[in-house]
Amino acid sequence: MSATPSLKASSNDKAGMKPFSTDEERVERAELIRILRETPPETLLAMSEMQTVEAFHRVAQSVPFYQQMLSSNGVDPSTVTDIQSYCAQAPILDKHNTFAAHSISELCTGGNLDDIRTLLTSSGHSGVFSFGVNTKDNLQRSAKSIDMGLQYLFDVDNRATVLINCLPMGVKVNTTATFLAETSVRDDMVFAIVKKFSEEFDQVILVGEGSFIKKIIEDGAEQHGIDWPSLRVHLITGEEGIAENYRTYIAKLLGIDDITAEGGKLVGSSMGVAELDLNIFHETRESIEIRRLAHQDEKLRKALFGGDVDFCPMFFAYYPQRCYVEEMPRGDGHNELVISMLSEEMKIPLLRYKSGDIGRIMTYDHVVDTLREHGYDLKPDLQLPFVAVYGRGKSLDTPQGHLFPEAVKEALYADHDIAAAITGNFHLTDGGDGGQLAVQLRRGFDKPAEAEARLLKHLASYSSVTPEVTFGPYETFGHAMEVDYERKFSYV
Prior knowledge:
Radius of gyration: 23 Å
Distance between the termini: 41 Å
CATH class of the domain at 1-38 and 115-282: Alpha Beta
Number of strands: 18
Oligomer: single chain
Helix content: 25-40%
C-alpha cells in the first residue's frame, strides 16, 4: 500500500473533506480542555464533591429503588449535606442489590422507561447481567465527552478521522466528531474499511479488545498487505487491561519508535462499565509515559502502586465533574473502586456503585510529587486525578504463591517471537507446586524454540511462581471462547 494522505498535517488539506463538527462544537471542546489545563486540582475536586451531593438529592427524590434503599438503610436524605456525610451514609450499590433485585423501571428516574433510546448489556462474565440505558440527551452528553477526549488525544477537529469500532456487538462509541464505522469483531470488515478508506482520511482510530486488535494488526500485515507503518493509525483498547510489553510489541508492528511522542501515533486504552458509561477512565500520553517509567523503575513502581506490586496496573486519568470515585476495603487487603455518576441526564443514575475492580485513587499533586522524588520532571498537561486499576484480583493460588494473569501477560509479550506466535489467550489451572499454564498458539503457528524456558525466564520478573508451561495448537486449545472475541476470556 502506498503512502497515504493520512500523513498530512491537517484535514484542511483534504479536497472536499468538510469538518465533522460545527464551529460551536469545536470551540466548546477547546474551552473545556483549556479549563482542565488551568483549573487547580483542588478546585476540580471541590466542584466534584458539590456535584456529588447534588446528585444524591436528585436521585433520592426521583428514583423509586433508591428511595427504598435509603429507607431500608435508615438514611434521612436531609442529613446528607456534604461529601463526608454522603460517604458515611449513602448505601453501597452493586449488580446484586440493583439489577438482580429490581425491575428496570424501578431503577429509572421517574420510575419509567420514558425517553430511553438505547440499551447495552454487560458481558455477563460475573453471572449477573447489568444494563446501561441511554436517553437522547444522555447519548448527546456521552458523545460530547468522547469527542473532547478524541480531540485532546488525536486532534480530530483538525484531522479528518475515521474511527473503526470493533468492540463486541452492541458496544457503541458515541461520537459526532469522526466518521464512524462499526464492525464488531468481523476482522474481514475491518480490513476492508482500512484498505478502502484510509487513503481518504488523515488518520484512522481502531477501538477494540486487546487480543482482537493484535489479530487485526498481525493478520492485516501478513495476509492482507496492509502497510501499517505508512498509515497514521491509532489504537484504543478496551474490555480488559493491557500489559505494558503488549503496548511495546504492538507499537513496533505499527512502526512507532517513540510511544509517547507528542502528536505521534498512539497505542492507548480506556475503561468503561456497561451500566455506567463506555469511557469512565482513559489513558493520556502522560499517563502512558508514567506507567512506562514505573514499568522500568522498580522504586517508582512501588512508590506509586504498592510495595508488593511486580507489574504495573492500568493507570488512567478521569474527569471528576463526570464521576466521583472512592476506594473501599473489601476484606482481603485490597481496595475496591466505588463510582458515583454525576450526570443529570442518566436514566439509571448509580451512586456509590461497586465496579468489582481493585483500584487506588491518586491526586494530581501526589503523582507529580512522587515523580519528582524519583528524579522525573513530568507534569501532566491536564490537572486531573488518576486511578490505578489492578483488575479483579483473580489469581491462581499455588503452594508457591499467587499467579496473576496480569503477570503472565507481561511475560508473554516480553519476548516478541513468542508474542508473534500466540493469540494472547491462556489458561491457568491447578497442578504441581506452581500450577499449569496453557498458552494458545495462532492458527498455523508453531511455538518458538525453547519457548517454555524463555517464557518462564520472563515470568520470573513479574511473579515468584513457576508454573508448568505448555503451548497448544489453535484448533485444539482446550479453553477457547465459545464465540471468538465476543465474550471475555477466563484466564483462571
